[in-house]
Design a protein that fits this description.
By secondary structure, this protein is an all-alpha fold. Helices cover 64% and strands 0% of the residues. Keywords: Coiled coil.
């Protein structure tokens, strides 16, 4: 910038400017020059240099004025957020004190004492509502075979429609329209909370880059593959001319560095990704502009590793999290959270000097939980270690969890226990269960999804029993396929939908007959207060026109019924869209929290404990994840229901909750044990007599998701042959233990003249690694017709020993003896 220009600007500002401020103004002017040149190149070329500078400076001045107004607004929003949080923390009466109050603003706590809708629950509610509006888009990609394959033509047509190209495909057109509407709604909600995402007319779909695929090629190769697919009109020099190939290649080289390193070129000295105000996310112009849908699809084929649906869902999850954070903590949530944490930690330590160590631990746990929820995680340290670890865990899910459905009957116990706590009508819940379990009832499925219920299957999630961070690969496909083929996904979804529908109907009935929140009975008031429901939310709920779904569900209060309220009916409460959106999320957030209690689904607290917050691609991180594989479900069962029991308002209530939980899950655990034995060809075990204690102890643990580990209390090995210590360290350690034992046994068996034993052990190992071989409706047939015969062929007498061990350690006989090809 020339000296006379600097002096003019300083005179207008009435102060001296720093070198950085001068540079920012100059950059802003040149950026606006490029923008004008791109939008109207013919007029731009006719302007003189001074005219170009003047027009660009005008736009820069208008930008600065808007930014100044936005800065003032953000200050006001930050003050308001801080006041809300201070009021909540100072009024909180829980035994965990102010640090506990701050902790509760981050993630759901099952004890029912939070009185606050956490960031975690806000994020889920926002995401699930967005997904509920995208049924047309989901149908457009025509998922097949348990939803594992996308129709290539459907994907192409949907991308074309998203990019504004007409395909004549009505499903794709409707899907693209729904996508535009819901992403625009989320953009407005983010900006309303202090964000600054501008409207991009040519934006159709998020971009995705595989760090591993990009990093596997040279910079020159990536640039040459990309440069021909770009819309060159977006790459303009300040003089209005298009960038030449050399200039554009240099520009793309910087983009390559960021993508190939996973952002390592933008890290703080702590290893965390740089993040300024969360509200500024999304305001930077997109730097890679593909010229058409075909170019986008070709790039994704070369350098992407996610499906179109996964890319769309990832975008919704990201912006939903950003909205929840800025709404809760203000436009700069990191700053507000850390200032609160420092203040509360200091106050708590000062008031309890003898408990400084405990205070420090709780503060660290709270900070770790916040970092996990907000996505402040370190990038993958070693992609190869991460990929191989993911593949091993995915393969174990595919080969070991085929019979998990038979261990899921305890869901019925936790569901009806939760229904009792939340005062839901049991008969209606049972009717809704029957309706949801009917696979031919597509109307029930469509309505429930439209209400934002049971969205996990749309996310491709199997985290109830395994992990939720499986990378894109054949092994992930196998794991998801087995979980769906086993019926576990359908079982979980159906019960979640049934519970959610019942709760929405019950809430609608209560709202219709109760004038205000304070008029509720003590139990209902305590439940809704624990979700952060306010008088304003209640008044908005009362304005919604309830839906009649039939089958007893004639008072349905749904997210859509709230969003359909006329703006004129709520404008006295504030900006209409904001008021309705908040009331809608309070409803969906409350229902989602209870659904995940009824049909246990691990949340952020449980995921953090099981290693999800540890850096991926490190031996520590991958070993931790392997140890906790299959353990997230039982840990969640214990954590959530113990917390809820301790949150009951009286000692009698706590005792009754624990007793009911143990009794119901133990009985259903007994059913699971017997069914699992029958599916394996064994006769049901005796439930009375001298082995009764063993049976009921196993049933107790089975009901809590710990059936495998219950075997350790009854014998030295599990039914799968693994040692107790190896299996306690997780199935990966168990697999390593099995391989080592076989390797050690080869020379020993040869010396002892038992070389045939090795063959049987190898067959057993191979069977345990075959995806689908453990499916509950196939495993008995596959065992007796194939694997048992192979084991007996390689190791004569192997099956007789297995039968003797079952009789000795579990006092069990077989209705289908191991050596028989068909039942006798």
């Amino acid at each position: 910038m020339r000296q006379e220009c600097i002096q003019a600007v300083q005179q207008a500002a009435q102060r001296m400017l720093t070198a950085r401020e001068i540079q920012n103004i100059e950059d802003r002017i040149y950026r606006n020059m490029r923008s004008i040149a791109r939008d109207d190149p013919m007029s731009w070329r006719q302007l003189s240099e001074s005219e170009r500078l003047y027009r660009a400076a005008q736009l820069a001045s208008e930008e600065l004025q808007r930014e100044a107004a936005l800065k003032k607004r953000r200050v006001a929003l930050t003050i308001a957020a801080r006041q809300r949080l201070d009021k909540f923390i100072n009024s909180y009466q829980g035994a965990d004190g102010k640090l506990g109050a701050l902790n509760r603003t981050i993630a759901f706590n099952a004890d029912g004492k939070s009185n606050f809708l956490s960031v975690e629950s806000r994020t889920k509610a926002t995401r699930d509502y967005a997904l509920s509006q995208l049924q047309e888009a989901f149908e457009a990609v025509d998922p097949r075979f348990f939803g594992l394959f996308e129709d290539e033509a459907g994907v192409r047509d949907l991308v074309y429609e998203m990019r504004g190209q007409n395909t004549g495909n009505a499903k794709a057109r409707n899907g693209a329209k729904a996508w535009r509407e819901v992403t625009e709604l989320l953009r407005r909600r983010f900006n309303d909370a202090g964000g600054d995402i501008g409207y991009l007319e040519n934006w159709g779909i998020p971009q995705h880059h595989s760090m591993e695929k990009v990093g596997a090629v040279s910079k020159d190769k990536w640039v040459s593959d990309v440069i021909g697919k770009l819309d060159r009109k977006y790459y303009i020099r300040a003089d209005g001319q298009l960038m030449n190939d050399a200039e554009l290649s240099s520009f793309l080289g910087e983009a390559y560095n960021t993508i190939a390193t996973g952002g390592l070129n933008k890290l703080t000295d702590t290893g965390m990704r740089i993040s300024g105000a969360r509200a500024n996310r999304g305001n930077a112009s997109r730097q890679i502009h593909f010229k058409d849908a075909d170019s986008y699809l070709q790039y994704q084929q070369l350098y992407g590793d996610r499906s179109l649906w996964e890319i769309m869902v990832g975008h919704l999850e990201g912006i939903s999290k950003d909205i929840a954070l800025v709404e809760t903590y203000g436009p700069n949530p990191d700053h507000v959270f850390r200032s609160l944490l420092d203040q509360v930690k200091a106050e708590t330590a000062t008031a309890n000097p003898s408990k400084t160590g405990k205070v420090e631990r709780l503060a660290n746990n709270t900070e770790n939980l916040y970092n996990f929820i907000s996505g402040k995680t370190q990038p993958v340290a070693n992609p190869h270690i991460a990929r191989w670890s993911d593949n091993i865990r995915n393969w174990l899910v595919a080969s070991r969890l085929g019979s998990a459905l038979l261990s899921s009957f305890s869901d019925l116990g936790t569901m009806y226990l939760s229904a009792k706590v939340t005062n839901l009508p049991m008969n209606q819940l049972f009717r809704n269960q029957l309706e949801a379990m009917d696979p031919t009832n597509r109307t029930e499925l469509a309505r429930a999804r439209r209400a934002g219920l049971a969205m996990e299957s749309l996310l491709g999630s199997v985290n109830r029993w395994a992990m939720d961070n499986m990378g894109p690969s054949v092994s992930r496909w196998a794991a998801t396929a087995v979980m769906r083929a086993s019926g576990l996904t359908a079982w979980s979804d159906a019960h979640k939908r049934a519970y959610g529908v019942t709760m929405m109907g019950s809430l609608g009935e209560v709202v219709s007959r109760t004038p205000d929140l304070r008029s509720l009975d003590d139990s209902d008031f305590r439940i809704l207060k624990s979700k952060g429901i306010t008088d304003t939310d209640w008044s908005v709920w009362k304005l919604a026109k309830q839906e009649d779904w039939g089958n007893g569900n004639n008072t349905m209060l749904t997210p859509e019924s709230i969003m359909r309220i006329p703006d004129s009916a709520v404008k006295h409460l504030g900006e209409p869209e904001r008021v309705k959106f908040e009331a809608m999320r309070k409803l969906l957030g409350a229902v989602t929290e209870e659904v995940d209690m009824a049909v246990i689904t691990p949340g952020a607290r449980e995921q953090l404990i099981t290693g999800s917050g540890i850096q991926r691609g490190t031996w520590k991180g991958e070993l931790t994840r392997s140890v906790f594989l299959f353990k997230s479900f039982p840990i969640s069962v214990v954590m959530r229901h113990w917390s809820r029991a301790m949150g009951m308002p009286s000692a009698g209530g706590r005792a009754a909750y624990i007793a009911t939980f143990i009794a119901s899950t133990t009985i259903l655990g007994a059913l699971s044990q017997q069914l699992n034995d029958l599916a394996s060809g064994r006769n049901p075990r005796e439930m009375t007599g001298e082995d009764a204690a063993k049976f009921w102890l196993g049933a107790l643990l089975k009901g809590g998701g710990l059936g495998l580990y219950g075997d350790f209390l009854l014998s030295d090995h599990t039914r799968y042959g693994s040692g107790a210590l190896a299996s306690m360290l997780g199935p990966v350690a168990g697999l390593v233990d099995d391989v080592v034992k076989i390797a050690q046994g080869i020379p020993l068996n040869a010396v002892e003249g038992k070389s045939e034993q090795t063959g049987g052990d190898l067959v057993k190992l191979g069977k345990g690694l075959m995806p689908g071989a453990n499916l509950w409706y196939l495993k008995a047939a596959l065992d007796h017709m194939i694997f048992n015969q192979m084991q007996e062929y390689f190791s004569p007498g192997y099956l007789r020993k297995m039968e003797q061990r079952s009789k000795k350690e579990f006092n069990q006989t077989y209705w289908w003896r191991p050596q028989d090809v068909t039942p006798q």
